């Protein structure tokens, strides 16, 4: 048990980066413990053994998620890890700390097929040899190496990391301009190639398709502000989203669905001192990693092959 607990933070990190899902990552690590407790095999390298087991479980979860995406409404984004700005780090927040788990860095991984993602992440992020990756995927090492190479070619690199101060300053200017409700003020805070992505699975309004360009980006968010009123901003609180400044709101319940504003969180990426991406996560099934006081509990996951009505 002590040896396993020493490995748990690393395993959570591996599983979260493989799946982009807090719930799946925590389940995979727990399942690896159960398999360890049942095995009669002689284990000479516990870290390598557990990494292979977690990798196989995550491959199964990724394959299942791929089936769900076929009927998913709109964009599919990773589950964010959200914590208070000034609160103590819980084990999950501490485990995923690092540039590789910035939200923008996880978003780009979503274009990969499950075997590619497993091969790429295990090798490039965690240094797992290709013979062990081949064992996870049930293929020979040469094919595992080829999958990782194809993944590198398929990936569009995320914005390069910036300092926390630069990130916070850029996001702060954007939020201040939004509060003014002025299009030109908002545009002045955005990178010309800014994009916006939303994930709600039909539960509420957000961007169903990726929004490209600063003008469309600004008009989309100002449109949400006009639709829901100033409360959509004044109820927002600054949070850490995957270790960087973001915002979150528990929303409110009005007399009708139209007068209600659902809980949601938003993350950002910054390039050249300007906001270059925004991620609006409003699907309550993606809130397993939100660790905020009074945050509503996420609903049970939607069964594979089904989706919420739009």
Folded structure, characterized:
There is one protein chain. The protein is of the alpha+beta class. The chain is 46% helix and 14% strand. Helix 6 packs across helix 8 and helix 7 crosses helix 8. The protein starts with a helix and ends in a 29-residue tail after the last strand.
Fraction of residues in H or I helices: 40-55%
Task: Give the termini separation.
Answer: 46 Å
Number of strands: 7
Largest sheet strand order: 1-4-5-6-7-2-3
Q: Roughly what is the average pLDDT, rounded to an integer?
A: 90
| Tally of alpha and pi helices | 12
The largest sheet is:
7 strands, mixed
Radius of gyration: 20 Å
**Molecular shape:** globular
Descriptive tags:
310 residues; alpha+beta; globular
Question: Brief description of this entry?
Answer:
The protein is an alpha+beta fold and 310 residues long. The chain has helices spanning 2-19, 22-38, 46-69, 91-95, 103-107, 114-125, 130-137, 141-154, 164-180, 183-187, 214-228, 231-234, and strands spanning 82-84, 190-199, 211-212, 237-241, 244-249, 264-271, 274-281.
Give me the secondary-structure topology.
Layout lengths: L1 H18 L2 H17 L7 H24 L12 E3 L6 H5 L7 H5 L6 H12 L4 H8 L3 H14 L9 H17 L2 H5 L2 E10 L11 E2 L1 H15 L2 H4 L2 E5 L2 E6 L14 E8 L2 E8 L29
Parallel strand pairs: 2-7
Antiparallel strand pairs: 1-4, 2-3, 4-5, 5-6, 6-7
Helix pairs in contact: 1-2, 1-3, 2-3, 3-6, 3-7, 6-7, 6-8, 7-8
């Amino acid at each position: 048990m002590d040896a396993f607990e020493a490995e748990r933070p690393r395993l959570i990190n591996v599983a979260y980066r493989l799946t982009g899902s807090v719930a799946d990552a925590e389940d995979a690590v727990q399942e690896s413990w159960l398999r360890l407790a049942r095995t009669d095999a002689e284990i000479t390298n516990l870290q390598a053994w557990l990494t292979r087991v977690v990798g196989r479980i995550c491959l199964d979860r990724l394959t299942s998620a791929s089936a769900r995406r076929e009927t998913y409404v709109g964009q599919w984004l990773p589950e964010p890890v959200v914590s208070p700005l000034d609160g103590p780090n819980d084990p999950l927040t501490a485990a995923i700390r690092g540039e590789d788990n910035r939200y923008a860095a996880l978003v780009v991984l979503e274009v990969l097929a499950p075997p590619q993602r497993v091969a790429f992440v295990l090798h490039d992020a965690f240094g797992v040899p290709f013979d062990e990756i081949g064992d996870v995927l049930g293929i020979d090492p040469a094919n595992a190496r080829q999958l990782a190479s194809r993944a590198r070619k398929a990936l569009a690199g995320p914005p390069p990391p910036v300092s926390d101060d630069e990130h916070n300053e850029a996001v702060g200017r954007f939020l201040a301009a939004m509060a003014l409700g002025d299009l030109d003020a908002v545009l002045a805070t955005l990178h010309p190639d800014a994009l916006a992505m939303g994930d709600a699975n039909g539960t509420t309004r957000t961007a169903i398709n990726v929004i490209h360009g600063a003008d469309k980006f600004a008009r989309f968010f100002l449109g949400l502000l006009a639709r829901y009123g100033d409360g959509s901003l004044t109820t927002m609180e600054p949070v850490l989203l995957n270790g960087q400044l973001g915002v979150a709101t528990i929303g409110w319940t009005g007399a009708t669905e139209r007068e209600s504003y659902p809980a949601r969180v938003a993350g950002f990426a910054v390039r050249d001192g300007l906001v270059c991406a925004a991620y609006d996560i409003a699907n309550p099934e993606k809130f397993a990693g939100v660790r905020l006081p009074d945050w509503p509990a996420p609903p049970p996951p939607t069964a594979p092959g089904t989706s919420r009505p739009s």
